[in-house]
Specification:
Elements: E1 17-19, E2 30-31, E3 59-60, E4 65-68, E5 75-79, H1 81-86, E6 103-108, E7 111-119, E8 136-140, E9 143-145, E10 158-165, E11 179-185, E12 193-201, E13 206-213, E14 220-231, E15 248-259, E16 265-278, E17 283-285, H2 298-303, E18 340-356, E19 359-376, E20 391-394, E21 396-415, E22 418-436, E23 439-443, E24 450-452, E25 475-494, E26 502-522, E27 525-547, E28 552-563, E29 566-567, E30 576-577, E31 580-593, E32 598-610, E33 613-619, E34 631-637, E35 641-653, E36 659-677, E37 683-687, E38 695-706, E39 713-723, E40 739-752, E41 759-767, E42 775-779, E43 789-792, E44 797-805
Parallel strand pairs: 8-11
Antiparallel strand pairs: 1-5, 2-4, 3-4, 5-10, 6-7, 8-9, 10-11, 12-13, 12-44, 13-14, 14-15, 15-16, 16-18, 17-43, 18-19, 19-21, 20-23, 21-22, 22-25, 23-24, 25-26, 26-27, 27-28, 28-31, 29-30, 31-32, 32-35, 33-34, 35-36, 36-37, 36-38, 38-39, 39-40, 40-41, 41-44, 42-43
């Protein structure tokens, strides 16, 4: 089969294409060239008059080589730069609106500083730790990122985001049982050019970005990127000198250099560094005493030694506002709140050498690191029982440092009727964390007033006398963990010469994982709770694909994946838990219909997961308790088999000239067997998969109108995203609200400024255009002592932005 698809990276596309795949290594596939220039290409979805209005091909590298997305046997969603601009996506958290229905992104707790990322019902509850892993691998330019902290840093100049749906255990390895999120940045072009962007919006928002390609010199091409993003809080803090909730300051820089001393060899070096200051989303009390318990009086509490009488609920301070379904604009209680700080950095060296026709050798060496100073005082009085003169407002502090190193070797080649890739992989990381949870405020005797405690304490720091200034921390826990992973993998696609419409792909990966660590501090006391995890595993993959025609591709696939075991550093003993594993069966089709004017892709899958890692958590909210403010969490492997079933459909059309309409839908069914609850004496408890709606959908329309006599055009974009209610805690039956978010953008694009090709684009954008309000995270853990608390989505944001390309 002859090559007939675009190799250049596609920039300037207008639509999100969420598609299900076909042959892993189609016979016309080529090794992915990480040093290929990224000159703007034709829009991948809008009709080209020269092609009779046909939809364009899109190139992906999900199989370690460049393949046509419509001919790749993996369910993939591709988000191009225009989608990011249309939706004003500045960080990964902005994809939480449902841009890709099967991809779920949420904050851990209320914090913007760490993200939960899930695909197809594989969504971990708490991966924000030192000794456990994700269920979806996140990759930046082919480098695996080991921790959730720092994932919400500002995005640089993005060429595309590939969302690989379903287990990727063969080519991407451990911790990709749900899929992989691969973020690819634009590479140096060797030609002078670039762009400058500046914008502003409500809530004091502003953003600037600069991307500059320098002319090639002595076979060296260099690209520089810089990004600044700022937003004021959504919820104001009445305490003078403290920050509100939902704010961020992000700044980052990235430099990449490509050296091509001789034909067939290239070396790419890149370095990035970013700082993300952010505050959590506000946690609101949405109801009080939902179980209708008798409300204790102050006299009864005082007569009971300052404790609640049995069977009663504490009275509510008259200062506390029960918000119901309304997002608060100003908090009722002022509490100390400062920015959390995430610092990320990374260096990578990628070498490519064409040793012979049809064979390329690659090496990817990378160092990365992240440090986080977490300051989360999002609960105020909304998560703590009121008692006279008691302390309240849990200030959750965490100080984490992680460093990782990875080395990967790949051999990518082709023989007659056979395309193959083989490789070796090594990964190691060290992570360390300490945490404290002081109370920042104290009630008066009747709840009509409060004081802010001093962050500095004198004398011995004890659990009853807590500060939060350096040197005044009563550290509740401390742990460190090390991980080592070794892997060998291979995958090949055979296309019979006599029957080139059929493609058989077979692959496998052997992985050896080791992890150890120690919980050395619990409730301020020195401990020595070690754990070890040692496991080896083989993950196979088989795909049979059939080209029913040049534009209709069918496939059936079997694959496996797994998430490594570890230990929960919020537990009292650092007890190890085992790995979880997935077997997946998938069928799908990709179809370009009506002379390639309509693109319809369908996929259906069955996944069976064993050893599901379930987190049971408990926070002591009773100020009279000796373990007040202690967050304890235990992880257990669920017995039996968890069932995940799903159907995905994606449609893209060009109904009229200049218009693109698309829609994506995902149905996801999950069921996890009842699991022994360590906080209930091992009683079997029904548990759930978090942040996974049964039904989710996204739709958009783009329309471009050329301006007469000019290269400029007016561009309109509108998208809508829906999801059913979800569980946000694995062991709670409470669900969130259903969600619906619309985003819009109007742009006057490609206005000529100079004769040498400099152009300007001016746009007006809005996220959550209709200003819908809904709860994305809700807990009823305090229903018997206070009420449900919840976090709301961001309100409508709107802004004006200008970009000059030269």
């Amino acid at each position: 089969m002859n090559s007939n698809f675009i190799r250049a990276a596609l920039l300037g596309g207008t639509a999100l294409l969420a598609v299900a795949g076909t042959p892993a290594f189609a016979a016309d596939a080529k090794p992915a060239d990480p040093t290929a220039t990224n000159a703007p290409a034709a829009d991948p979805t809008v009709a080209d008059p020269a092609d009779g209005g046909q939809l364009k091909e899109i190139v992906v590298t999900a199989t370690k080589r460049e393949t046509s997305l419509q001919k790749t046997p993996i369910a993939i969603s591709v988000i191009d730069p225009t989608v990011l601009k249309d939706r004003h996506v500045q960080s990964l958290l902005d994809l939480a609106d449902g841009t890709v229905p099967s991809l779920r992104v949420a904050t851990f707790e209320a914090r913007q500083s760490a993200l939960t990322v899930g695909i197809r019902g594989i969504v971990p509850f708490d991966q924000n730790q030192t000794a456990r892993d994700t269920g979806v691998g996140v990759y930046f330019d082919g480098v695996y990122v080991g921790r959730s902290q720092g994932l919400n840093a500002a995005l640089f100049d993005i060429e595309r985001v590939e969302v690989l749906r379903g287990p990727q255990g063969t080519l991407f390895g451990r911790n990709t049982e749900g899929g992989a999120l691969s973020i690819v940045t634009a590479k140096p072009t060797g030609k002078f050019g670039g762009s400058l962007t500046a914008g502003f919006g409500n809530y004091g928002a502003y953003n600037t970005a600069a991307h500059v390609n320098l002319p090639e010199f002595n076979n060296i091409s260099i690209k520089l990127d810089g990004v600044i993003q700022h937003q004021n809080p959504f919820v104001k803090n009445p305490l003078p000198g403290s920050v509100g909730w939902g704010a961020f300051n992000r700044v980052g820089g990235h430099v990449a250099a490509v050296w091509k001393p001789v034909d067939g060899f290239s070396a790419e070096l890149s370095y990035d560094q970013a700082k993300d200051e952010n505050t959590p989303f506000y946690s609101q009390l949405v109801n009080y005493n939902p179980r209708g318990l008798p409300v204790a009086t102050l006299a009864q509490i005082n007569a009971n030694g300052g404790k609640l009488p049995a069977g009663t609920i504490a009275p509510l301070s008259p200062l506390v506002v029960v918000s119901g379904d309304n997002r608060m604009k100003t908090a009722d209680i002022g509490v100390p709140q400062q920015y959390s700080l995430d610092r990320t950095h990374g260096f990578s060296a990628k070498l490519n050498y064409d040793v012979a026709p049809g064979l390329e050798l690659r090496s990817i060496t990378a160092w990365r690191g992240v440090s986080t100073d977490q300051w989360d005082n999002s609960g105020g009085a909304h998560r703590t029982v009121f008692l006279p003169n008691s302390k309240f407002s849990r200030y959750s502090l965490s100080f984490m440092q992680q460093h990782q190193f990875s080395q990967e070797f790949q051999a990518v080649g082709s023989l007659p009727q056979l395309d193959y890739v083989a490789g070796l992989f090594y990964f190691t990381e060290n992570a360390r964390e300490t945490a404290a949870t002081p109370s920042s405020n104290q009630w008066n005797a009747d709840g009509t007033g409060y004081t802010v405690l001093s962050p500095i304490v004198t004398g011995t720091v004890t659990s009853g006398n807590q500060g939060w200034a350096p040197g005044s921390l009563f550290l509740q826990r401390g742990s460190f963990a090390r991980a080592y992973s070794y892997a060998a993998f291979a995958q090949a696609t055979y296309t019979p010469e006599s029957f080139d419409a059929f493609h058989l792909t077979v692959g496998g990966r052997y992985t050896k994982d080791k992890r150890n660590g120690t919980l050395y501090l619990v409730q301020g006391k020195s401990t020595n709770f070690p754990f070890t995890f040692d496991n080896s595993r083989f993950d196979p993959m088989v795909t049979a694909a059939f080209d029913a025609s040049d534009t209709v591709h069918l496939y059936a696939k079997y694959s496996t994946g797994y998430r490594a075991g570890g230990a929960n550093d919020r537990s009292q003993t650092f007890a190890a838990f085992g790995a979880e594993a997935v077997k997946a069966y998938e069928i799908g089709s990709k179809m370009d219909l009506f002379d390639k004017r309509v693109r319809l892709n369908l996929a259906g899958y069955i996944m069976d997961r064993t050893g599901t890692q379930i987190d049971f958590d408990n926070v002591d909210t009773n100020p009279a308790s000796p373990t007040y403010n202690l967050h304890t969490e235990e992880t257990r492997n669920a017995p039996g088999t968890s069932k995940i079933r799903g159907v995905e459909a994606d449609l893209t059309t060009n109904p009229i000239e200049g218009m693109t309409v698309g829609a994506s839908y995902a149905y996801t069914y999950t069921n996890v067997p009842a699991t022994p609850n360590p906080f209930l004496g091992g009683a079997l408890t029904q548990v759930f998969v978090v942040y996974t709606p049964r039904n989710a959908a996204s739709a958009y329309v783009d329309y471009e109108v050329p301006l007469a006599g000019s290269e400029a055009k007016v561009r309109f974009h509108l998208d809508g995203n829906y999801a059913d209610p979800v569980y946000s805690f694995q062991n709670e039956t409470t669900r969130t609200d259903k969600t619906f978010v619309m985003n819009g953008r109007i742009a006057l694009a490609d206005l000529p400024l100079t004769e040498n090709g400099t152009k300007m684009t001016i746009s007006l954008w809005s996220r959550n255009l209709l200003n819908n309000t809904f709860i994305y995270r809700r807990s009823a853990a305090n229903a018997a002592t206070l009420g449900d608390y919840a976090n709301f989505n961001p309100p409508r944001t709107i802004g004006l932005e200008g970009t000059v390309r030269f």
